Amino acid sequence: MNKNLAVKLCGIPMKNPLTTASGTFNPQAHSQFYDLGILGAITVKGVADKPWPGNPTPRIAETYGGMLNSVGLQNPGADAFITEDLPFIRKFDTKIIVNLAGHSIAEYCRVAEKMTQADVDLLELNISCPNIKEGGVAFGTNASMAEEVVREVKKIVTKPLIVKLSPNVTDITEIAKAAEAGGADALSMINTLFGMRIDVYKRRPVLAQKMGGFSGPAVKPVAVRMVYQVHQACDLPIVAMGGVATGEDVAEFIMAGATMVATGTMNLTEPDCPVRILKELEAFMEKTGVTDINEIRGIVE
Ligand SMILES: Cc1cc2nc3c(=O)[nH]c(=O)nc-3n(C[C@H](O)[C@H](O)[C@H](O)COP(=O)(O)O)c2cc1C
């Protein structure tokens, strides 16, 4: 059976719906495991206007079915990303989504300006990082701030703008609608859930920052629920992530309403998981008689 896996996100054609969740994927390192050209798109780690050092260690901890991190958006800054990382990523036959980080509207706008001029395909505005003190999630948990930052960044960018939402809210549809009102072209979700672990022998938190972002297969039902709710509430295309580990997980998110789906924490434990996941997705389509992946988008009422 001939199968179509190609999708369009904001009018941009992708060879399949699979991408990588920001911060869980390192093009140089992962390209040693498989040809990154098999991906519909590569989404890169959050980039800020200037380099950020990240948070003190320990900043990673394992949990059942997932992990906690408080990396804090460590990154080399936009200029180094453009000159050092981007030419390498461009060598692969895939689209590039750049994740934008900032502490303030002015910082988001400065990095957005640099990246909209760079050789990338789409931009993803991260207003949902739980691991930085100012900015980040403060924008993603307040509807009027979310709308304002999206509106200001949209004034600058000429590339499609995906807005990445936080799950750490009472009603994610409220923030989704605010981002839509601000002019977002697409939404991505979910970022990590705010969590904590305590080392009972040392009687102190496991992470130096005390709290961090919870991700991995254990969070998937929360992510599916949020993708479903947002798809019901708003018209924007969705890039889904949160615990994706199998081809069936990709189909599940697409049935909930997603256009693209990202592997996140799984990239850390099984670096070539996209190869397996794409095969499983094709096998799922074969088994269930789906000839075009677009047929099943949002079919769950
Ligand atoms: C170590 C680590 C670093 C991350 N860095 C970023 C980041 O820079 N920008 C961002 O928007 N999300 C970041 N995230 C969140 C992921 O992109 C993703 O939204 C989240 O982990 C849920 O997907 P998963 O359960 O498949 O990992 C990071 C997650 C992890 C585990």
Q: Could you provide a short overview of the structure?
A:
The chain is α/β, with parallel strands linked by helices.
- Mean pLDDT reading: 95
The largest sheet is: 8 strands, parallel
Tell me which ligands are bound.
Answer: flavin mononucleotide
Number of domains: 1
Instruction: Describe the global form.
Output: globular
Could you state the order of secondary-structure elements as H and E? EEEHEEEHEHEHHEHEEEEEHEHEHH
Q: Estimate the strand proportion.
A: 15-25%
Attribute tags:
301 residues, alpha/beta, TIM Barrel, eight-stranded parallel beta sheet, four-stranded antiparallel beta sheet, 10 helices, 16 strands, binds flavin mononucleotide
Structural features, described:
By secondary structure, this protein is of the alpha/beta class. It has a single domain (7-296), classed as Aldolase class I (TIM Barrel). The protein has helices at 27-30, 78-90, 105-117, 137-140, 143-156, 172-182, 220-233, 247-256, 266-269, 273-288; strands at residues 7-9, 12-14, 18-20, 41-47, 60-63, 66-69, 95-100, 122-126, 161-164, 186-189, 193-196, 198-199, 204-205, 211-215, 238-240, 260-263. The strands form four sheets. Strands 3-16-15-10-9-8-7-4 form an eight-stranded parallel β-sheet. Helix 3 links the parallel strand 7 and strand 8 (122-126). It is globular and about 55 Å long. The protein starts with 6 loop residues before the first strand and ends in a 13-residue tail after the last helix. The structure holds flavin mononucleotide. Flavin mononucleotide binds at residues 21-24, 45-46, 69, 71, 73, 99, 126, 129, 164, 190-192, 213, 215-216, 219, 241-244, 264-265.
